[in-house]
Write a structure and sequence with these properties.
Strand content: under 5%
Radius of gyration: 25 Å
Order of helices and strands: HHHHHHHHHHHH
Number of helices: 12
Helix content: over 70%
Largest sheet: none
Shape: globular
Oligomer: single chain
Structural class: mainly alpha
Number of strands: 0
Length: 356
Amino acid sequence: MGKQSIQYWLRCILLVLATIGISIALPVVMPLIVAIVLTLILWPLVNLTQEGLQKYWKGCPRWIAIIPSFVIVILLSFLLVRHVIVPVIGELTKLLANLPYVLDQFALVVKGLQGVDGESIIPHQFDGIINSTLIKIGNYGVDLAQRSVLAIVSLASTLLQLLLVPILTFYLLKDGRDIKKAILGIFSKPTSTHLEEVVTDIHRTLGGYLRGQLLLATNMFCLTFIVCYVYDLPYPLVLAVLAGIAEWIPIIGPFLSAVPAIILGAVISGPLAVKVAITYGILQLLDGQIIMPKIMGHVIKLPPLVIITAIFVGGYFFGIIGMMVAVPVTATTQIVAKRLWYFNTYYRLQKEEHHG
């Protein structure tokens, strides 16, 4: 058992070193990461298509079942670029040009808030804090928007590299099981069996999380766009996209996405800002208490305190991207740590069962 345990840990160390090497070469392997994400999202759809085709054609190869999924992705990508990304860039450009004016108007609204006696609700001592905060918000907003535009331009400039994504996705969907067996075949039993359970658990968790979050983000995008359209808020697509992106940051994200909408509403009128705040609150209540539990179920089994801590740690070290990937990374770490921690117990039980 001792030799087996040493081999196990040595191999785990090699896998960790390989993971570190991949992370260092992140720009090079980015198409592979995108392909893995797409594979996790499309995997159940391909399986369902293959099962349906095999009812009429028992020898149906898997690559034929992949084609409908690719057609759906291509159509959705075309619609997304034409009806969302291109208009959002236009709205974002206008917002960048008008952002200083919007923040100045909002500052005037805040300073002009009147109490019952006609005095400002905001003490004069807070004027400097409010001004500096608005300046920081403006600078951060401009920087974030510019980064978004640059990211889109950079994405277009690396289109040749991204052409690898559909090819890699196709082969991962087609040969994913064989690749997993080949990697797990490095280890002898019962280690390989145990690691297969770990990989399956991670695959199920990450796949469910990605599909669930994608559905939640799409739902929040549509609802926010409808709200912005009904209230006639400016830049509705930008606000809707922001709400969809913020949905990938659990607990904290929805509150962050409400701030720009409330500011824009306050610039137009105070009652509108109140309506927007109440509506966003209702949407987040429905999303957090009804829609999210229905969609996500028990995919991520993490306490809220752990989720909040992971989000803050991820945001501190890696910014917005760190906040968005904090939950799946923490969930994966939890699975790996739990399985590795009880590996010796698992190995002993398997050995006893084999000799029994």
